[in-house]
Amino acid sequence: MTKHxxxxxxxxxxxxxxxxxxxxxxxxxxxxxxxxxxxxxxxxGASVAESPRAxxxxxxxxxxxxxxxxxxxxxxxxxxxxxxxxxxLIDATSGxxxxxxxxADRLAAFGVGFVxxxxxxxxxxxxxGRLTVMLGGEEPWVGQAGEIVEVYSGKVxxxxxxxxxxxxKAVNNALLAINIMAVGExxxxxxxxxxxxxxALDVINASSGRSNVTENLFPERVVTRAWxxxxxxxxxxKDLGVxxxxxxxxxxxxxxxxxxxxxxxxxxxxxxxxxxHVELVKEIEKAAGVEIx
Length: 293
Ligand code: NDP
Prior knowledge:
- This protein has 13 helices and 9 strands.
- By secondary structure, it is of the alpha/beta class.
- It folds into 2 domains: about 160 residues, NAD(P)-binding Rossmann-like Domain (Rossmann fold), CATH 3.40.50; about 120 residues, N-(1-d-carboxylethyl)-l-norvaline Dehydrogenase, domain 2.
């Protein structure tokens, strides 16, 4: 039987994910700012709910894609006891493991499943339906979640129990953040030495230091001075905090991630809540007195 899917959170990445959902399933959406939900409904034929509780009352599976686990918890408060046994919440938020375990416990009391299902691949990957999706949870919920999220993903992997996917996503994003910072610092020095940024990146991309940051982000966003806003720096700062906690909770040294957390945390109030994550490089350029071009 075709599942009826609810989608809560039509932000930068949630919206293109929800478009794939609406193309494959009868879909109902709710967004805090109503106009975004109405615009989405006009373009996709999805229906709009008056509240998160109204979504839950009318669908089989709910997907949340919100900034933090605290926001998911607030939405669960609003839903209250609106759940029916056998429903499933797929949380695509880049959340935190403790928050996802709490959500899973709350829902288990209603006989409702919970799977943490964060994504990687950015807004371009979401539009293309090629996101990597990490799943944390137990069967049969993980299998059911996989059948839904595959419509926006190129790779779906069950990585462990509830919370494991949020931990993995946080570590992945900590690696991204460390890389942006290190590439920014290294290239600032090279440009001051007279090496063109494009030349340095060409060499690095044929060498052992290459990464998504050197192959895509710097050529497309920094050297061009395009600075598109696709993933807020505030969210990457949040991810670094989650990763730090994961390391601390497991008694693992966290020096590299701590340094990145300090840098992104300091840049956040300067650049603002809407700045893109790559704009950290602007702070490095300012301190170095050079533009990476
Ligand atoms: P945005 O800031 O663009 O959108 C956030 C969405 O959540 C909006 O729909 C917003 O509603 C809604 N929202 C925020 N707070 C609340 C709340 N308290 N209650 C209800 N709704 C709320 O974020 P993104 O879409 O970029 O990111 C969503 C999640 O996906 C984050 O965890 C992020 O880390 C992760 N992610 C993002 C990627 C990206 O490239 N952007 C890539 C991979 C993961 P409103 O419209 O009213 O503001």
